[in-house]
Every structure is written in structure tokens, then in C-alpha cells.
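Sample log: ABC-2 type transport system ATP-binding protein.
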Amino acid sequence: MIELEGLTKRYGDKVAVDDLTFAVRPGIVTGFLGPNGAGKSTTMRMMLGLDRPTAGDVRIDGEHYDRLKDPLKYIGALLDAKAMHGGRSAFNHLLFLAQSNGIPKSRVSEVLDTVGLTSVAKKKAKGFSLGMGQRLGIAGALLGDPRILMFDEPVNGLDPEGIHWIRNLMKSLAGQGRTVFVSSHLMSEMALTADHLVVIGQGRLLADTSMADFIQQNSRSYVRIRTPHRERLLDVLHEAGVTVVESGSGALEVDGGEAERIGELAAQHQIVLHELSPQQASLEEAFMQLTAESVEYHAHSDGPSPVAPATPRQPWGDDWKRS
Ligand SMILES: Nc1ncnc2c1ncn2[C@@H]1O[C@H](COP(=O)(O)OP(=O)(O)OP(=O)(O)O)[C@@H](O)[C@H]1O
């Protein structure tokens, strides 16, 4: 268990982490999300005693990190895959970590095997690809067989097989009852991996909730309809008090989960439907929705926006009148 209580970090006038209070629980994968500059890395660094909080507290299984004896046996972390001595072989890098944390030498070969680096164990880390470096960093995190694992952007540089591997690794570590805390920018990947989400924006806590609740609370669920009898269907739905909006692609959309009712209304009036499908926005859309206010670094593009509808939505509700 990792517990944060009012954790705050200021750099001069800049509040990088602002009064964060949450707990990362064992037995599940907790995803840590936030836009660029939200304060994720600073938070993780404070969890590991690498940065000192301006205020507040963070405890690892009830203790401050710097009071843990042989900390790698309590918490293993991958923060920066490049933070290693490039002149050392993978084996010697891990051996150094093991010896300085009271971990038996036999664990080195075990974790190299777990991450699939046995065949390059004697090669110098500076010749490693980004993906191999990530695997070596993960081996270092696993070395002390800790109850808590923390990964900052672990799938960076991994190929699809590697991404699949780390997803399964994190799930199996959580399945063994360990605490797994992972940050990622890849929302689709997070949606497949995490059970619980902690979302921050501009250093502040925006959400601390299950994945399912997060998507449900922050995204729109609606029914998409396509019909060759558009005007008739609009009349019928309007009569029934159903509010319809037009999507950019020519389909109609009705907020909420009214698919059965719409289908029955269409059937009663013998209106052919080509599509009647309940839709739920993805984690990515839910995340964009929640963090829209707190994005610090915006890209500016002259080209068309890939998320904005091609034409503005037109509402048809109680006040809608056909021309
Ligand atoms: N040593 C530092 N001195 C001054 N400002 C810092 C320092 N470290 C971080 N910051 C600032 O604190 C804020 C949070 O940074 P942090 O790296 O924790 O964000 P992040 O969520 O990890 O971002 P990213 O997703 O881009 O890695 C940023 O505005 C950053 O510029």
C-alpha cells in the first residue's frame, strides 16, 4: 500500500504537486494519468524519497521510504530506463543493485530470465535498444521481489509483443496480491491494464476511481442511429420527447441508453433502421473530457482536428421545429 497525505511540491512559484491525498491499494493495477506536466513524475519521485515534499507525507507500507531497510525488498520502481551505468553489463548492473540491497545473487539470473534478457546478460547496457533498456529497468524493479511496484511509462519503446508482455506481467503481479502503480500516456493500453485510476491535472487530484466508474462518469453514452427515413424518424422521436443530435457523419445520436425504446418506436411506425447501436466513449475521450481544463501544453495545428466533429452538432429537442 502507498499512502499520500496532502503531498505538495513547489518549485519557486510553481506548484508541481498540489495537496494530493490518495492510497494505492494492493491486489489491483492502479493507473496514474495526467496531461504533460501534471506532476506524475514529481509525485513518483517523492514516493521514492528522490524529491523532498514541500508539505505532506507519503508512506510505503506505513513507513517513509528513507526509513526502509533494503528498500528494493519493499518497493521496486522503473522511473527512467536510461538511469543506469552504460558501461556495465546487464548482469553486473543487477548484481550491483542486489549486493547493495542484501538480495542474493541467484535473483539476478531469475529476473533476467523473467524479462527475457538472459541471452544478452553479458552485453553492456549502453548498446541496448530503448525496449531492452525498459526490460532491464523492469528487471531491477523485480529484483527484491517487492510487494509494491511502480512503473513510469513502462511501455515506452516496447514493440507490440513487449507491450503485451508487460500488460500480462502487471496483471499477474497484481494477481499475486502486490500493489502495482503505473503511469502511461497510452490510454488504450491503460484501459486494458488498469483496474483503478488516479488522475491528476496541474498537480491536483481530479479522480480516484475504478476504471469502469471513471469512463461512465466522464464520458457520454449514447445511441447511434442510421435510417433512410430520417425526417420521419425525427418526427416520431420528437413526438415521443426524445432529444436527438446530428453527428458529423450523417448519423443521429440520442444521449443515454434508450436503444430499445427507439427500436420499438421505429418498429411501430414501420421505419427502417440501418443502425441502432449503443455507444460508450473510450477512456481516451473520458480522459480528454476530464482534463480539458488542466492541460498545460497545447499543440497548435492549422489542420483539421481529429476529435472535433466535421460539422457542429444540431440539437433537435422540445424546441426543435422543422423548416
Ligand atoms: N526540478 C524542477 N524544477 C522546476 N520545475 C520542475 C522541476 N521538476 C518538475 N518541474 C515542473 O513541475 C511540473 C510537473 O512536472 P512533472 O515532470 O512531474 O510532470 P509529469 O506529469 O510527469 O509530465 P510528463 O507527462 O510530461 O512527464 C511541470 O510544470 C514541470 O515543469
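Observation: Residues 11, 14, 16, 34, 36-42 surround adenosine-5'-triphosphate (CB under 6 Å).
Observation: The first strand starts at residue 2 and ends at 11.
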